[in-house]
Amino acid sequence: MFVKRWFLLGILLLCGCHSVSIPDTFSYRHFKAGEFTLAGWQKELSPHDFVKIYIEGDGAAFDAYGQPTSDPTPRGILMREIAFGDSHDNVLYLARPCQFVRDEKCLQKYWTTARFAPEVVEAMSRVISKVSHGRPVVLVGFSGGAQIAGLVAVLHPNLKVRQIITIGGNLDHSAWTAYHHLPALTQSLNLADYKEAFQKIRQTHYVGEKDDIIPPFLIREFAAQETIVDVKGAQHSQGWDAIYPFVRFAD
After folding, report:
1. How far apart are CA 140 and CA 148, in angstroms?
2. How far is residue 92's CA from residue 175's CA, in Å, rounded to a whole number?
3. What is the strand order of the sheet 27-33 is part of?
4. Which of 77, 129, 154, 174 could make an SS bond with 20 (beta carbons 3.0 to 4.6 A apart)?
């Protein structure tokens, strides 16, 4: 059953492979953060304004046969496409550990059971702190990136997260693995354990009507109804075009 489930998820997550144009205002960067080197594209035009940070999903964690890949770099361009079209002065597209860049710390567990491990959350938090320089931040997380955004916000209140936006967000990975009959992410933190603190943060959750990876009911069970926006026809990795303007103009 586990293999079959990972096979189906692998097929769905590996679709939508396209290229995306990178505006001249964005620069590719490597960030040394704790145990990891993280990749990102950054636009920094105003030293005093808030920073908008787009956090990538789990990427190509599993192949079409349900086996862990050797490279979790995302095939889809959803988050890069939205981020690169954001007209705000300060924008960072931030990849997850081992996406786009590899180092000796790129163990397979960091895109499987330990994808939300304490050291992963700490590394992401360090980059966000370095880029924000004490300024307020808006975090936008796709899929597993939503889990990272929430954990960063509740575990590091000094980061001044003033809003969290999620797209097809995995907010409770224990509920998610249980629903799909998958092995638990035993080496990961779970936002569900910090739900009370998370609910105090301003948030919006975009939910795909036809999302088979993160079914709408999982988000509804976790987040307040008034924070949820249904997106008709949206699947996990596609069909979100209608929300692009709203995410890009969010502050």
Report:
1. 10
2. 30
3. 27-33, 36-44, 90-94, 51-55, 137-142, 161-167, 203-208, 228-231
4. 77
pLDDT per residue over 185-219, tens digit each?
999 999 999 999 999 999 999 999 999 999 999 99
Topology of domain 2-249 in CATH is: Rossmann fold (3.40.50)
What are the sequence ranges of the domains in the chain?
A: 2-249
Q: How far apart are CA 196 and CA 192, in angstroms?
A: 9
pLDDT at position 127 over 60: yes
User: Please, which residues have CB within 8 angstroms of residue 192's CB and are 6 or more apart in sequence?
Assistant: 171, 172, 173, 174, 175, 222
Q: Please provide the DSSP assignment of 208-246 as one string.
A: ETT-SSS-HHHHHHHS-GGGEEEETT--SSS--GGGHHH
pTM for the full model?
Answer: 0.93
Q: Which amino acid is at 77?
A: I
The number of C-alpha atoms within 13 Å of 65 and in the hemisphere containing its C-beta is 3
Q: Is 1 exposed, middle or buried (0-12, 13-18, 19+ CB in 10 A)?
A: exposed
Would you say how long the chain is, in residues? 251
> For residues 211 and 11, is the Cβ–Cβ distance under 8 A?
no
HEC assignment per residue over 109-140: HHHCCCCCCHHHHHHHHHHHHHHHCCCCEEEE
Share of the chain above pLDDT 90, in %: 87
The phi, psi pair for 156, rounded to 5°, reads: -135, 70
**Whole-number Å distance between alpha carbons of 83 and 169:** 17
* C-alpha to C-alpha distance for 50 and 133, rounded to whole angstroms: 10
Q: Rounded to whole angstroms, how far apart are CA atoms 97 and 247?
A: 24
